[in-house]
Amino acid sequence: MWSVHRGIASVKNPLYPIELLCYDVHPIGAFGLEVGMKVHVVHRPTQNLFTRPSGFIKAFDYTLNPFSGCAFGCSYCYAAFFAPSDELQESWGEWVRVKENALELLRKKRARPLIDKSIYMSSVTDPYQPIEKQLELTRSLLIELLEYHQARLVIQTRSLLVTRDIDLLRQFKYVRVNMTVTTDDDEVRRAFEPLCPSNQRRLDAVKQLTDAGISACITMTPLLPVRDPLAFAQQVKDSGATRFVVQHFHENNRRFVAGTGQAALDLCRERNWTEATYRVVVKQMRTVLPVLYEGQPGFAPVWE
Known about the structure:
Blueprint: E1 2-8, E2 21-27, E3 39-44, E4 50-51, E5 62-64, E6 67-68, H1 86-90, E7 95-99, H2 102-107, E8 118-121, H3 131-135, H4 137-148, E9 152-157, H5 166-169, E10 175-180, H6 186-192, H7 199-211, E11 215-223, H8 229-238, E12 243-248, H9 261-270, H10 275-286, E13 292-294
Parallel strand pairs: 3-7, 5-8, 8-9, 9-10, 10-11, 11-12, 12-13
Antiparallel strand pairs: 1-2, 2-3, 4-5, 6-7
Helix pairs in contact: 8-10
């Protein structure tokens, strides 16, 4: 359930220095959110819906981000450092910008359809973050892609809400849902991802997708401290996913967001989560998951 307060901002907000349609959203148990918090949402037009990717996903033709910012606010999220100001970086997880003209921009692509183009949705936000339940912006983009384009699609999320769109996803010829699941330990999950659904609920969502015939990948990126590597590997395998990716969590000196940073880092140190420990865990997991990609190769635009 969502509690929403909506109106026109009549004064300059320090985060959004122009007058905009805005409202505050209070997630209360929506699709697996475990902790309620206030999220400031603004609607703003964008000039470009599609961008050329780089890094791990550079092999894709485009990235598509319906939103800027993310209410999940995971403490390790690299996307925070793409926010356009230090203030927005510092408040990552507390704001979301809705690209209000996203569907309009996609409709303009009908003249030159995105046939066989590979699209990664999304690279710096979660297309199924809680506000999507109310807005259905991602769903509207999927409908447009399905009806007017023959694109190859990968959806990256950590949200249970993706199961809402099974009816659309199963109609795509080429589609894969990447679900981020970073640990088998809910104490660790709460330290790094306090606003995200539990690990098991995410795996249950993947099972719903794969039971519906939708290809899925478990992205354990970053892989956080794990209690039982063999049991965890079996859990992710049982989800029906056919692709698995890991990447080590690299502690650095950049600020970790959402106020969980120091506690999360302390927990890693308490668990002796080092590069060497990570390597031991991955080796054990490979006995259950023989095809376990590490880093960039796991994000290749390949559809089984």
